[in-house]
Amino acid sequence: MSEVLTILGILAGIGAGVAVGWYLRKQVAQAKMNSAESKIEKIIAEAKTKEQELLLHAKEKAIKIIDDAKKEEDVRHQDLRQMQQRLEQRETMFDKQMLDFDERKTKLQQKVEEVQAVKKRVDEAYQIAEEKLQTISGYSKDEAKEVLFNNVEKSIHEDLSVRIMKLERENSEAIDNKAREIVLDAIQRCATDHSSETTSSVVNLPSDEMKGRIIGKDGRNIKTIEKMTGCELIIDETPDIILISSFSPIRRRICQLALEKLIKDGRIQPARIEEFIEESKKELAVDIKKAGEEALYKLGITGIDPKLVSIAGRLKYRTSYGQNILNHSMEVAYLSGLMAEELGLDVAKAKRAGFFHDIGKAVDQDTQGTHPEIGAMILKKFNMDEDCQDAALTHHLDKPEKLISQVVKSADAISGARVGARRDTYEQYVARLDELEKTAKEFPGIEKVYAIQAGREIRVFVKPNEVDDYQAYNLAKDIARKIEGELQYPGEIKVMVIREARVIEYAR
Length: 508
Prior knowledge:
Elements: H1 2-137, H2 141-189, E1 200-204, H3 209-215, H4 220-229, E2 232-234, E3 241-245, H5 249-265, H6 270-299, H7 306-313, E4 319-320, E5 323-324, H8 325-343, H9 347-355, H10 371-381, H11 386-394, H12 403-417, H13 426-441, E6 446-452, E7 457-462, H14 469-486, E8 494-498
Parallel strand pairs: 7-8
Antiparallel strand pairs: 1-3, 2-3, 4-5, 6-7
Helix pairs in contact: 2-8, 4-6, 5-6, 6-7, 8-9, 8-12, 9-11, 9-12, 10-11, 11-12
């Protein structure tokens, strides 16, 4: 029983403790809730205060913006009013000018009508006067004009021809004298002596036995050489030599080098022939480049593309009428420089233009076109100056436009026309003279034509009853122009037209 009471007492104590604890916790929770509510109320109060401040600030700012906008609007209104006033003033001025313009237009129209009326009266009076004049003279307008022109031509024909010849003679004499001085001075200061080249080369043999070895069994060696080089080997009874014939100096040189190597080596067979020909081509390419470099070094020409130097070196193995083109180009360069110095031109540019004027001949046998066109194209490709290009293109024309080109043309003519520079075969010589005479005989009124001084001069005898002095003067010019346009020749050709009247009478 006591244990039960004890347990009940404990349970009662626990229940009382729980009740007290619950009450205390409730009081603490209530206190915390009251504290939180007070804080929230405080925060809300502060927020409302800040809200009022922000609203006041925003209102002040809005009022200020509105005031500024009103001020700007007032300024714009004022500007618009001023602009409108200016436009009104301009419109008023424009209206006034239009009125003035209409008034002037009316006056001008009246004057035009007056002038047209006067012109009409003048035309009528002119027509009446012309009809009267035709009636009195018995000629129409065209007939009177023709008669007048014929009379004037007859009266001044002789005076005109004499005056033209006199003026041209006076001008040409002074110009010719100055040009002659410059050319003679250049020729005297450039002394060159180049022998003409042929179309064959000679290879010396150690013995006649070598001829048979070069020919080979059934001619296989000589056939291989001729096929690979494009040359013809002439083996005859002449002791210890073989003649190489070809119109291409480059092919002849390759063949000559290959034969010399074969003779020195002693093993002459098709395989060795092919090997030595390839070696000879490589050696020749080096020699060509070296020749171009040496020529440019002697002339003092620098800054040239190496490929263009090699092309220039090919001129060593190119001839024209037997004249070596590389030597000819160097000579033209020297002469161009000397004449340019006398004329006050750029000497370096003149030398460069003179040296490269025939550059097209280096490849003209392998390229379609004339050598002036090919040369100008090559120089343009390597960015040479326009004077060099023009000199290469126009050095065979009658009157090149640029002065440098005229200098190069003159130097080219001097180099090609000097004694011993070029050679002609007998057949070519005779054909050239015959062609000259035929070209001159094509004109009317010509009695006889003679080409003299190896084709350097042509004398034309005209019929005096068909060609007068004035026509003879023009005939000489026409023949010279025709020769320049149709024939190819070195130097210049003098055209002399002779008109003479012979009166013969017999005393019986």
